[in-house]
Sequence to fold (257 residues):
Amino acid sequence: MTRPGAPPPAARRTVSADERTAIEAVVGVISDADLLRALRDARGRMFQRLEFLGDSVLDLALVMHSVLEPDCPRCRASRRHGDPARLATDRQLAEQARRHGLGSWLEWEVSDERLADVVEAAVAVAWLSGGWSAVVGLVSAAVHPLGDGLGPALQDGGVTAPGDPAGERRVGAALLELAAALAAYRELPEGDEGDLSRRRAERHRTARVAEYAARTAVVVASGDADTVSDRVERWLAADVLAHGADAALERAAEVLR
Fold:
């Protein structure tokens, strides 16, 4: 993508036409020049921040897919997902990254871990630039084919909870984790991945979730903190399925304030 001996991405303020074409072929149109430059520089702090955020975005998409389509015929290892995290191991993400040419615009030694990082960063940029429809398109093309119902479920809602308590709790937990990651990303604009991870952990605490339930009575607040947190997660899962992820994310952010 670049000439031998060319300066590293961080030293080049402009993105070449070839680089833009390669990136947007994967991620979609990116109007924010800073996001475009960040995707080109896997050593940069902004890239690491995007990777951090994209990990939570990807997790929500895959968890919702596993709950809404438990008998996914496109899963290679089994007709049932089980743990959706196995679709997003470094090895799995790197395999898909190589297959689809993700990161072909970058200048660093390729490894499974680095290629997994670029998938997660690209997912974050897709979400920030194009919303949930862009995420579904990117994940379907470059991670795992998603069912037809996931896009509307994330975008607009109108989906009935599947009646799977464990699955609903996973959806709610993934939504809270994304809300905590997004809060950290916004609150610490100069923070590195370690700073963001610590802030996310501070935000997403079982005790904080239980305190919100006691304050607002959105669910029955009796029982220990873990039990109450489980109820809040199921309540949030029903919210994201009924009203879409953007609206539910706002409510998840309120839970963690």
About this structure: DSSP finds eleven helices and no strands in the chain. Residues 161-257 form a domain with the Ribonuclease iii, N-terminal Endonuclease Domain; Chain A fold (CATH 1.10.1520.10). Residues 1-5, 77-81 have pLDDT under 50 and may be disordered. The chain has two domains: 1-155, 161-257.
